[in-house]
Design goal:
With 469 residues, the protein is of the alpha/beta class. The protein has 16 helices and 12 strands. Strands 3-4-5-2-1-6-11-8-12-7 form a 10-stranded mixed beta sheet, with helices on both faces. Belongs to the glycosyltransferase 2 family.
């Protein structure tokens, strides 16, 4: 091997090592802020009665918008969970986005749907609406039947027909806890400048679901789903709680978010041509409020829970992560002017650079690091010092962060009450770095390449339905 190539590889090794150190240090800092924030939040919750807060501050009416495309397997349980919400004034708008399965028929027979008049208050362009129905058994349940236009288009149709000051966006494959809406609205009651808030997404696979409620929280039996439990805990409890404490919330999950309707309409609704419309909407709200000098705040609340079904096969997981990565890149490209721009405050100087340099470029750097290490090991040119340093920073540090996320879960909410589930979570925090993490990195890298090739499809997400006791 030539000296020039060796020197190049040595520089690459050093850059990768420094990159991992910065990436993991960022997560360590957010984890520390999360520990502090969750500790304060838990003590505060003990002294606050959510029902009293709602009664005192007044409950702003909310419309829950549920985009649905071929969701016949889960739509009944998901809608039942919405109908059990403990909230004084809310409507449910299920938007059937041209489903080719029995989604509309299942809703029609379950809730005795009848055509009913309802007039739009906004005019965001969408695919044509074919009919509007109202349930004869639940007067606050409406179904909008429209031609297919994809998820963002379906949500925009719901926004057009929304008649309340706040709107919530939830997935049709999710299960909402009864007090989720009461808890996610809290930032709007406590801070008049709040324009959006997000709740936590938890994995429903393996849990027992009856009548739209999660009756028993259990770890999934499927190994891929188990790893995603740890991944979701790390993303929300160690990540977004810290972002909220640092006031750099740049992403509200499309599976559960609450927004001010007037601002969402002002920015034109969700971008119909965006692959990652939830991320893009949050970034656009930040940008709009900054550019128009509107006082605002975007929050994350860790206890309103939406349970979601996650992929249990490698193929479906790969399509999901591929799409997430393409959506991330697309959003960052659209709003590139925020990058390191002091005009946008902490969002431009901290949040946006993190997503750009670590989330977007991370798969390329991480995958290249694995390839170079394997190449040097196979050729006998690997430095043992670098090899152990790489394992320490790339794998062990990552395991520590996952263990911290499990610790945050156990200290704050403790949804997994069985000892064997807790032990499995601790073991999974270590095991995910020995194959699962590399698999996710591969699919994210593939998503990067597909985006550069111009691929815009969503990919098919298979629904198995919720497990019953």
């Amino acid at each position: 091997m030539s000296q020039a190539l060796l020197a190049l590889l040595a520089v690459h090794q050093l850059c990768v090592l420094l990159y991992f150190m910065l990436w993991n240090s960022y997560y360590l800092v957010t984890s520390l802020f999360s520990f502090r924030a969750l500790h304060r939040y838990s003590r505060r919750l003990a002294s606050i009665d959510i029902d009293d807060l709602i009664a005192t501050a007044g409950a702003p009416p909310v419309t829950v918008i549920v985009p649905a495309y071929n969701e016949a397997a889960t739509i009944v349980e998901a809608s039942r969970s919405l109908l059990t919400l403990r909230y004084p004034d809310y409507e449910i708008l299920i938007v059937n986005d041209g489903s080719t399965d029995a989604t509309l028929e299942v809703l029609r027979s379950t809730y005795r749907l009848q055509p009913a008049p309802r007039f739009p208050l906004a005019s965001i362009p969408t695919a044509p609406v074919r009919a509007i129905y109202q349930s004869q058994t639940h007067s606050n349940l409406w179904v909008i039947d429209k031609e297919n236009g994809k998820r963002a288009d379906a949500i925009n149709a719901g926004i057009n027909y929304c008649q309340t000051p706040l709107l919530a966006i939830v997935d049709a494959d999710g299960i909402m806890e009864p007090d989720a809406l009461m808890r996610i609205v809290r930032p709007f009651l406590e801070d008049a400048h709040t324009v959006a808030s997000g709740g936590i997404i938890r994995v429903v696979n393996g849990c027992n679901v009856e009548d739209g409620l999660v009756q028993e929280v259990r770890l999934p039996r499927n190994w891929l789903a188990r790893f995603q439990v740890v991944e979701y805990l790390r993303s929300f409890l160690a990540g977004r709680v810290g972002w909220d404490a640092l006031k750099i919330m740049l992403l509200i999950s499309g599976a559960f978010g609450l927004f001010r309707r007037d601002l969402v309409v002002a920015v034109g609704g969700l971008a119909h041509d965006s692959i990652g419309e939830d991320f893009e909407l949050t970034v656009r709200l930040h940008r709009y409020c900054r550019e128009w000098r509107i006082p605002y705040a975007i929050h994350f609340v860790p206890d309103p829970v939406a349970w979601t079904e996650v992929p249990e096969t490698v193929a479906v997981l790969g399509r999901q992560r591929n799409r997430w990565q393409r959506g991330l890149i697309d959003t960052l490209r659209r709003h590139l002017r925020l990058l390191l721009n002091p005009r946008y405050g902490r969002i431009g100087l901290l949040a946006f650079p993190y997503f750009f340099f670590f989330e977007m470029l991370g798969p390329l750097v991480e995958f290249s690091g694995y390839i170079v290490v394997l190449f040097l090991l196979m050729t006998g040119w690997a430095s043992l010092t670098y090899f152990w340093a790489f394992l320490m920073v790339a794998l062990l540090f990552g395991a520590i962060l996952s263990l911290a996320a499990v610790g945050l879960e156990e200290l704050s909410f403790r949804r997994y009450t069985r000892l064997q589930d807790l032990l499995w979570l601790l073991a999974l925090s270590l095991l995910e770095n020995l194959g699962y993490r590399q698999l996710i990195t591969y699919y994210r890298l593939q998503g990067t390449l597909d985006y550069l090739r111009g691929q815009t499809g969503w990919g098919h997400m298979e629904r198995k339905g919720f497990q019953k006791a």
